[in-house]
């Protein structure tokens, strides 16, 4: 038999585990925006986030790893991601992102691992992704992409998963 105190604690834990918030509400994101040079890794994967990806994410130019996968994010991938030239690992998988893959993502010169499977992305894969010479993995399955795979991707020597 639980005491009133124990029941209250269990209720708080249960409600907290199902709390829905936005990226802008996360302390980790706020700290990165206030001191971008001290932020190279954001891991908000599987944290029940909702809303859209803020365009301010493009201000985090020292970011090398970004994981916002397995959430409830909607909207488009911001074109401002093109400013993230140090980004190496981007995980956007299993959200409800829509729209096209921005061609500006081809500016992310250090990108090695790009994962955006399980969304609602449309259009074709931008040829600009062929500029990402360090890319070894692109996972975009389970979207609504159409058209041929750009020949530029065939020139990526390190690419082992498409």
Report on the architecture of this protein.
- The structure is a single chain.
- The chain has one domain: Leucine-rich repeat, LRR (right-handed beta-alpha superhelix).
- It is 14% helix and 20% strand.
- The strands form two sheets. It has a five-stranded parallel β-sheet with strand order 1-3-5-7-9, with helices on one face. The protein has a five-stranded parallel β-sheet with strand order 2-4-6-8-10, with no helix packed on it.
- The chain has two helices and ten strands; from the N terminus they run ααββββββββββ.
- The chain has helices at residues 4-17, 27-34; strands spanning 41-43, 50-52, 65-67, 72-75, 89-91, 96-99, 113-115, 120-123, 137-139, 144-145.
- With 162 residues, the chain is of the alpha/beta class.
- The N and C termini lie far apart (54 Å).
Oligomer state equals single chain
The proportion of strand residues reads 15-25%
CATH architecture: Alpha-Beta Horseshoe
The SSE string, one letter per element, is HHEEEEEEEEEE
Q: Assign an overall shape.
A: globular
Radius of gyration, rounded? 18 Å
The name of the CATH topology is Leucine-rich repeat, LRR (right-handed beta-alpha superhelix)
Task: Report on the biggest sheet.
Answer: 5 strands, parallel
The SS-based structural class is alpha/beta
GO cellular component, one term: membrane
Keywords: Leucine-rich repeat, Repeat, Signal
Subcellular location: Cytoplasm, Cytoskeleton, Cilium axoneme; Membrane
Signal peptide: 1-19
